[in-house]
Specification:
Helix content: 55-70%
CATH class of the largest domain: Mainly Alpha
CATH architecture of the largest domain: Orthogonal Bundle
Distance between the termini: 58 Å
Shape: flat
Largest sheet: none
Structural class: mainly alpha
CATH topology of the largest domain: Tetracycline Repressor, domain 2
Number of domains: 3
Strand content: under 5%
Mean pLDDT: 91
Number of helices: 10
Oligomer: single chain
């Protein structure tokens, strides 16, 4: 298969998914694509351009707010999708807004989100608040999930059991009680279960603030 810009970028995303962005190098990418590093630069001029392209591919996976829904429902769809995409690409969160050369998918995504808020009647000031708060929440939640043992999923329960066995109950009574009385006893406990609960709190709070502004 001949090398193309698209193949370089999709290969780079797959490699980052596999080894993380910290271990990502052009040499490793070339090996994964069965080519030479200089050949890659014939299609994408620099590592920075590759990273920008990778971010744009990640943005392309995120569902934009549906235009046929109320802004609260529409932005919820987008945020839930965004978190799922970031969970698939745990390396991406710190890079998503750091690019100096945003691609089409990134710009189109931001434009669609801004349009969602404005269609919902939010002022520019409230739109700025909403975008900043919601993205900080989604990015932060996804980043924390990526760094928790077992991704914070149901597999975290055995980790909690191991910790409870060595934690001095008299020194850390609240931590011990939370682990033993909640994490270990709640069927299907997952850190991620709190995401949509928190998301709804934020969206409802923004809606109320926008109404007060009127």
């Amino acid at each position: 298969m001949s090398l193309t810009k698209e193949r370089v970028l999709t290969g780079a995303v797959a490699l980052a998914d596999d080894i993380g962005i910290g271990a990502f190098t052009i040499r490793k990418l070339a090996a994964a694509l069965d080519t030479k590093p200089m050949t890659i630069y014939h299609h994408v001029p620099s590592k920075e351009a590759i990273l920008d392209g990778m971010v744009d591919l990640v943005f392309a996976e995120i569902e934009v707010p549906p235009t046929d829904l109320d802004w609260r429902q529409a932005i919820r769809v987008r945020c839930v999708s965004m978190r799922a995409v970031l969970n698939r690409h745990p390396w991406a969160s710190p890079l998503m807004e750091s690019t100096q050369s945003p691609g089409h998918e990134m710009m189109a995504h931001h434009d669609a989100v801004l349009g969602c808020f404005r269609r919902g009647g939010l002022s520019y000031q409230m739109t700025a608040h909403a975008y900043a708060i919601l993205d900080s929440y989604v990015y932060g939640f996804a980043l924390e999930e990526a760094n928790l043992p077992a991704g914070g999923g149901e597999d975290i329960v055995p980790v909690a059991e191991e910790m409870a066995a060595i934690i001095p109950q008299d020194v850390y009574p609240n931590f011990y009680a939370f682990a033993t009385e909640h994490v270990m006893k709640q069927p299907g406990y997952s850190f991620g279960n709190s995401f949509e609960f928190g998301l709804d709190l934020i969206i409802n709070g923004l809606h109320q603030a926008a109404q007060r502004e009127d």
